[in-house]
Amino acid sequence: MINKAYTFLLFRFHLNLIMLFTLLLGCMIPIAGYSQSAQMDTWVSINGQIYGAKPNDSGQLGGGLNYSEHFTKGDYEPKDLDELIEALSKAKPGEIVFIPDENEIDLTTYIYIDQFVLEIPEGVTLAGNRGYKDSKGAILLSDALKTPMMIKALGPNVRITGLRIQGPNGKRYMAHHHKSFQPGGPRHKYYYKFPISTGIITSYPKLEVDNCDISAFSHSAIRLKDGDSHHIHHNYIHHCQYNGLGYGISHSKASSIIEFNLFDNNRHSIAGTGQPGCSYIARHNVELGVSLSHCFDMHGGRDRNDGTIIAGTDIEIYNNTFRAYQFAIGIRGEAENKCDIYQNWFVPHKEMKHAVRPYPYKSPNVFNNVYGKEPVQSK
Predict the structure, then answer these.
(1) How far is CA 224 from CA 152, 178, 216, in A?
(2) DSSP readout, 1-59?
(3) If we measure between CA atoms, which residue out of 340, 215, 207 comes closest to residue 281?
(4) CB-neighbour burial class of residue 145 (10 A; exposed 0-12, middle 13-18, buried 19+)
(5) Is the pTM of this model over 0.85?
(6) In whole angstroms, what is the distance from residue 81 CA to residue 64 CA?
(7) Sign of CA dihedral 206, 247, 287, 333
(8) First-residue to last-residue Cα distance in the chain
(9) pLDDT tens per residue across span 169-191
């Protein structure tokens, strides 16, 4: 009689063979996040075309274990908050401030008492080792509900990589929003009595954020106020879902490329004010399945009350995978130049009208996408 241990080992052996075979086929990939071993389909190939999010040579979607650009040392290697502040005050463009291992740096008291902001000088890289030899990476955190900004870029070409950045509020607070905005309610003045939080802010060009796990900010995980050529890639951005705000990446008058990220439990994972100059390319990102509202967003003139119907300048949304059951994309006006939406995989949706919604103007250019759990042809 075969004993239980042998049976279990035999089962695991066959399971590993099946997983390896599937990986070789190219459709099942590892997903970063709480469980590095989780597996899911993120793209399909139909008639030689790729639909949905496919990882690139830098490693798995969301960064982490298989990411190709891990940092393991720096010009400065602070281990606590005071050392970190001192290192950033000395760092020059091109230098690296590296927080080793899984060190926890808690900014709560500094933010609560002194309204402290961690400032990164122009051209400096702030790094951790998330994913290297299974490391979770160092964590920067604030438990102060009023965290207007945790990290601020002081100039262009700032890079933040390989870190966990955790805010104070991953909740929705639906009742507060309803009380504020119900018919006859006190609206914004009352709504903003409850403090909000933001993770990373820049008004300068070329911010790069990669291989980070960013969560629990009630306004935005990353707020791009101004500047162009921002690059947000290979991150896991989640639990930014305070009702009425709750953005993974928000744009004021900025432009960016957003790619190879994992999103989950946000209100809008990508959002923009829609002002002229507000633009983004979103490609090869995955919505893992939980969203408070539609996933990718661009506001229009009606939201800003500026008398226009402008919803950004250039919007390109392609090769993303949407698993959330809310409609995926909301464009609330007309882009000045273009709004192209193509080669996405809308897993829970049967057709375009369930996945993309214009508000209520000319429809964006939506073409060559696939729908459903087992798509057989593009639409």
Answers:
(1) 11, 28, 17
(2) ---HHHHHHHHHHHHHHHHHHHHHHTSEEE--SS-TT-EEE-EEEETTEEEE---BTTB
(3) 340
(4) middle
(5) yes
(6) 24
(7) negative
(8) 55
(9) 999 999 999 999 999 999 999 99
